[in-house]
């Protein structure tokens, strides 16, 4: 990694933005007149690298780095460095994927620092960590060499030079560890001394003193233990006694409370019955007034209306049925056309397939004909050469005669062998046939038994596997059932929780009269619709307002009856569907509103909800006139436009009224509709889960006895398998099986050999005939040759004619094939059009069927309503007559219940008095029991519960306690009881101290071993660093001052830690002191040593500021050459005023002063 470019803006003397481009990866020099800003470039680099010591960049405060301290209008100083990071082997961690890394630092007049890496703002620590990972600590910068540092090296003592080597080698880590370990050893020694003093001065004297009173103390200890045991036993007895009494009385109290609670429930039930019968009497009185005339007249009119509705719907049903018949006939006709087209398509496709087969045969025949033509040409050439061919064989006649004679000799030899083997096998067969009849009979019986047993085994095996599979399913069903049960409980709990927390979302009421039709009460408005998207919920709930909780009923009489029959604690409002009028928004108003605000910004409220059409009147009444806008701005435009003049609501709940009223959004009702939707979903899930649970439960009941059945089948399976294995063994290993198998094997061998013998004899005759025929041809060779040549020419002409005919036939079929392809394409397109028409007709048919279904449902509902109204009409006449009798019965029943209620109240008062008295007694017992329990630990309570107190005498226990207490008091006057505990305590403490002493001594020795190891490692590492630095020191000094030598010499050759001194030689003569050298030579020595230490642990970048100030021109030039030679892996940026230094640089930057601000020019040199 190296610097690629540097941008300085407002930093020190650089009042204007200056960019130093294209730094050389190796050697860069900066020169210029004094005061033109050379060193400021180096300060800018150090500033960007995160320096915190201001004196290093020659400033006292951060404001000093800003151009003219901010007095010239420049308020910030910014420096940006671009690093080339293409060499990934030397990249910083986590940045290897970047080819360039840009780091900048900016400081303003308020001293606010800003660091950035690749444009991202980071902390100063992040910058420090970044450069520390490259071994470039800018606050302790070994890679920056100032002129003063060279002078300091010259005046260093041997120990100080050694410390420089240690710093370069990193052995300071060993020293810090060594110091911490030495401190640990000191602490261990102090601890040992303290512990030994405690043991000698406190613990051992106390042990000696107590040992003298040991006998008395031991007796005291025995008495003390006995006293403790007796007290514990008495406490245990009291704990058990009061616990038993408390539980017994508490159990009686609970039983009494249960009776009291039950009696209260009886009282409340009686009170409820009295109230119910009172309400019933009042209802019957009202019914009596109404039934005689009003309802009968009302239901007569309603009956006429329902009959008209029913006839109107029936007419629509007839129309739709006729439409469906027409569409069905169209579909049938179109399907016939499609079927015919498919048949035509299949026929043409079959013709295509036939052509492909013919084409494949043509190609095969063409290849064969071509091959035959080549073969016949070859034969003609051979015949013209005088060779005669056999009729069926290749080659000349003489060759075939020789070949057939050899085959005839081989065949005769094989036939003789076959005859010998057949005779031997027949003799062997006759021997085995003796007793074969009986063996065959036995073998057949055994085979029959084996077959029967195998069938039985397969049957049991299949039944066992099937039952076992069912058992596995049964075992898998139980966890699933338990999981479903948990889900059902959880879902039920959620439903109950929702209902208890949202009681306002449920309308509960008592039926106004017996057999009341609850379907006429449709429920709260908020439960009758859902938003198409819940982002509109707040707007919709704001539109509805309090109407969300209005109750929708079938007609006004239903609402009136419910109000009269129920005493609601809150106000209840009803929306009767027979009285309410729908209030929809005119289409032209909606169109204008959407033109003003945008079709995707303005919506009618009614378009944003889903609802059942039977509630359309109520929904239209609430939402019909409202508009919903996505933003406040759109709502303002639409609402106050004179062409619209409608209320507008935003998604945030804002309400805009054309009258000029504006109401802010609220979220108090935001989750009402969402909560209802979630509750409906939970109810649906619960229904599904219950259905699954019932199904699985039924399965489990049906499969309850599977385990026993599997066990029985397994035992039976094993038994039959054993029997089967025995029969198989008897069959396959028995004598009959072996005898039958052997005979069958011999017969098979004889059959195969006889077959081969017959085939061999036939082959003999064929070969003999071929030989005679060929010998005859040899006698008449001239005539045969002429005849074969003539036949070959005829065959050649025949093959050529065949090839020509086949080609003509193929071309004709190929033309037909092309026509067929076009016809198939047209037919396919035609079928596609017909299929599309069919889909359209089917869609139309389904639409008619859907509408017909809806009408049929409406017709059924209308019929049901008509029948129900008719029944009600008839029943109202009867009710009017029965009501008076019912009222009398209710009054008598109320008197009986009132008497029973009074008696129940007296019993409750008596039980309440007894309950108060028993509660007081139980509380007292509980308090004593708790106090006794607090004195005991959990283990003691457990022991007390396990003890048998059936023979325990508390008086005897108290007497024993008194005697032990007297003896304890007597002995404790002579000796101090606490000394016995102290004795044991001191003994244990002394033993613990001894263990600690051993452990601490062990730790101390371990630390001393580590110290010794650290010292060895340090010396080893330091010696290695010294050797490497010494080697490079000599090389560098020799290169900058040819003919001279330099080295680091140990003050004590056996101990490197005594220090190192610099030795210099000229022409082999070593100088006693550096004082003998000139000032320039001494500066070269110090500079060579510093550079040698840098080379030991190199970093990507080195900065040298006028280190050649004390050197003459030749030495300066040598330093430049040395840097190029020895530091090939690092980038150097050097400030120098001497041509000998920067003439070796690859890139030279010259500074100058222009209009009160520094400027820089770049020169390329030494590119070779």
TrEMBL record:
One of its GO terms (molecular function) is ATP hydrolysis activity. Residues 519-639 form the SMC hinge domain. It holds the Pfam family SMC_hinge. One of its GO terms (biological process) is cell division. It is found in: Nucleus. Keywords: ATP-binding, Cell cycle, Cell division, Coiled coil, DNA condensation, Mitosis, Nucleotide-binding, Nucleus. InterPro entries: P-loop_NTPase (IPR027417), RecF/RecN/SMC_N (IPR003395), SMC (IPR024704), Smc2_ABC (IPR027120), SMC_hinge (IPR010935), SMC_hinge_sf (IPR036277). Residues 210-365, 394-501, 696-851, 983-1024 form a coiled coil. One of its GO terms (cellular component) is chromosome. CDD domains: ABC_SMC2_euk. Belongs to the SMC family. SMC2 subfamily. This is Structural maintenance of chromosomes protein 2.
